[in-house]
Amino acid sequence: MRFAVLGPVRAWRGDQELDLGSPQQRAVLGALLLRRGRPVTVGELVSAVWGEEPPTAAVSVLRTYVSRLRKVLEPGRDAGGSPQVVVSAADGYLAHVPEDALDLGVFEQRVAGAKRLRAAGEVSAAAELLHAALDEWEGTPLAGLPGPLAEAERSRLHEERLNILENRLDLDVRLGRHGDVIAELTALIGEHPLREQLCRMLMLALYRSGRQADALAAYRRTRRTLVAELGIEPGAALRELHERILAADSSLELSPSAKGADPPAAPAIAPSTSAAGPSQLPADLATFTGRRAELEHAQALLPDTGNYPSTVLISAIGGMAGIGKTTLAVHLAHRIAHRFPDGQLFINLRGFDPTGTIVPPSEAIRIFLDALGVPPHRIPAGLDAQAALYRSLLAGRRILILLDNAQDTEQIRPLLPGTPGCLVIVTSRNQLTGLIVNDGARPLTLNPMAPAEAHDFLANRLGAGRLAAEPEATDELIAHCARLPLALAIVAARAATNPGFPLSAVATELRDSHGSLDAFAGGDLTSDVRAVFSWSYEALSAPAARLFRLLGLYAGPDITAPAAAALAGLPLRETRGLLVELTRAHLLAEHQLGRYTLHDLLRVYAGERAQAEEAGQDRDQAVERLLSWYLHTADAAYPFLTPHRRRVPLEPPPPDCQPLAFTTHEQALSWCEAERTHLVAAVHQAAATGRPGIAWRLTGALWGFFYLRSHLHDWYDSALTGLTAARSVSDRGGEAWSLGDVAASLVQMHRFDEAVDHLRQGMTLWRELGDAQGRAQCLGNLGNAYLQSGRLDKAIEYSRRALAVYRIVGSPWSEGIMLANLGDAYQRLDRFDEAIECLEEALVVLRAIGNRWVEGVTLDILGTVHRRLRRHDEALEQYRQALETHRDVSNRWGEGHTLGHVGEVYLAAGRLESARTTWKQAQAIFEEFDHPDAEDMRRRVDSLDEDARALPPGTRPDPTTER
Predict the structure, then answer these.
(1) pLDDT by residue (tens digit) across 9-65?
(2) Is residue 476 within 8 Å of residue 442, measured between CB atoms?
(3) Torsion sign (Cα): 898, 904, 907, 912
């Protein structure tokens, strides 16, 4: 597929152009394409299309646009299949489109290529590539699209095109094509009379075409315009050109040899004729294995075999301590050394070293000058002079330079060559941002080995047979080493020096030392994981070192900046700076935008440092702040997900703990979804560290989120943990609340008898506590449990009792739910008039308080009443409204449930294919959350398929007609 935004937003499959729908729908696609594979939230898309005054149902309309785009872009996708082009991502969407499939991407690639060619002196080729880049444009970008985003992007893209057009025209003039560009420049100046660069090029082109008077007239017109409109004189460059044209400066003429041709090419770099150059590379590791993708990435820097680099090439290899940077760099250098016949230079800059002695640039240059044959008495005294001599010696030579273990960019920059032909490989534990931004280095960050690579790593050292004999022990060794090459090497050395030890014994040793790095102590400092980590840790500032230690106290898989700020008790801005410092030191990885994680062994090391350097009270307060931050932020999300429902009682957060605040349902839900695993981890950490109040309250604050998103196993696990924690300290209120949470998750898991048992225990506790609302909540939940299990008489009894209490205590949230449940029970008993009366009353109550969540459920039940009365059109309309409401509040379980009912209507109408498609959509939704209803949908689809196969050929019903 191909996409275009440099003109009208268009798409093609092969040679066939696709119908992308209305301007607003194309605006949605345009916004996704412009984000270039990064997620766009629903709120951002609404703002992009409608601005500050979106329609009431904007979110619903937006989801409809996305659904239609998916059908157009992927017409062959199975109903249950995941979209591949427009993909859901958190609270929004992203477009998976390769760069070369988008005209803007092709344009930018060609512009970047032209920039490289121009820097290499290949001006003609650069000009041709800019011509090709500008050919991608088909008029006004995003033509015809409404909305503020399209308007802003049109202005930005228009300015970008004009800048590139000026660059292309400048190259054309330099190449002597002045006669070809005069008309184009004249037209552009008419459109942009204030751009002096256009006037300068037109004057030069006219002068070189023998039209001196016209060139001077062009200057006068531009000057008049600038004075009249801006009150300023032309800039110095334009005035100087005017004076040189007046004086008929002969240097303005293009030399005859350059007319119509490229400027003289840079001289080719000839092979060195000197004696054998230096060969300083350390020995390659005989057992090197893996890293194939990283090696290919690094080798791709080099031009094709037989050609030599036209610029200075720099590869910056980074990563945490023990990740194998030096090993990879040395192996890579040996693989490509033959491409650099004038020698290889190597130095360990000792940026992170047990001795603490960093090699200064002046010392490194003297070492290199000596290797290049410069006598000591000829080496200048100052660093600048030494660097100049060093660059002069490298000029015209092809040398590979490996700078290992660098501390920062300033240590490296004097060691860079000044002319093409050389390759520099740099390794560092720090992110060398300055080298990447200012010197064009290509970054290559190493991550832990893939599991298969880690297995091969051990096999190379211990033999494949030994690993094959104990596969489970091998997997456990790899897991304990967290696929860190240094840790794997230490463990392999221990197993190799004790060939009589079974691998399971080594694995047991690692398991028994869980929580410390004692098992990864090598024979010297360079092979001791703890020592190697310490060199990076000791280079940190004191505040960053403290944050690193505190991160070792947190049990979650990763952390955001606001959560880290709560952990450290620091302002968010200061915390962000410390996270950047830790990330640059590769002690922390930003594995997703805004999310930071510790390697497993670094987490252990951070925890060790916290135990050794942080007072017990400080550790406890840090954990308390973080867990309280999760609790109070979840509580801030609660009213957006379950408005008017009773909230969990909380104490104020501790000092220096600033929970997040939300303004929309989408924000609250997106945060809960993004932090789900961390919230569950926080429940467990609270229970394990003697904070039972946080454990059960956090689960209670997540009730609406767990219910909406049907994360049933997380819900049950968290609720059970909270219940156990509350019981451990005889917290009767916490126990009563947690019994209700456990029961709610059990109902959703169809474990009704267990749910009823928990609810009866809870009702007893609420009665003892004298809490009428808690008791009513148990009554209502019992009614729901009986309803879902088919015990309808009891469902009606308990729902009526709960309804009476809720009306007394004034809880419209719960009153609406009870009316909806009663309506459901009545319709199951074929008491349709009573059902409709309850459901319509429920809608009035729910809409009065804005409870869209239960409104969607109620509309679904009302649709079912009409379906059972065979009023198919009315049923489909109620289901349509229910689906719209479910999607507005992101109730995925409700959406799947209603889709299942829509399929029933289609089946009753004889529209078998529509029923199959709808049930497969519902099945896909339930499978997202491992919901038990997924199996029911699968059985329905299978039953349809079996019925269809059983019919004789030619007798199958038309899937688009009614029976």
Answers:
(1) 899 888 788 888 888 888 999 999 998 888 888 888 888 888 878 887 788 788 888
(2) no
(3) positive
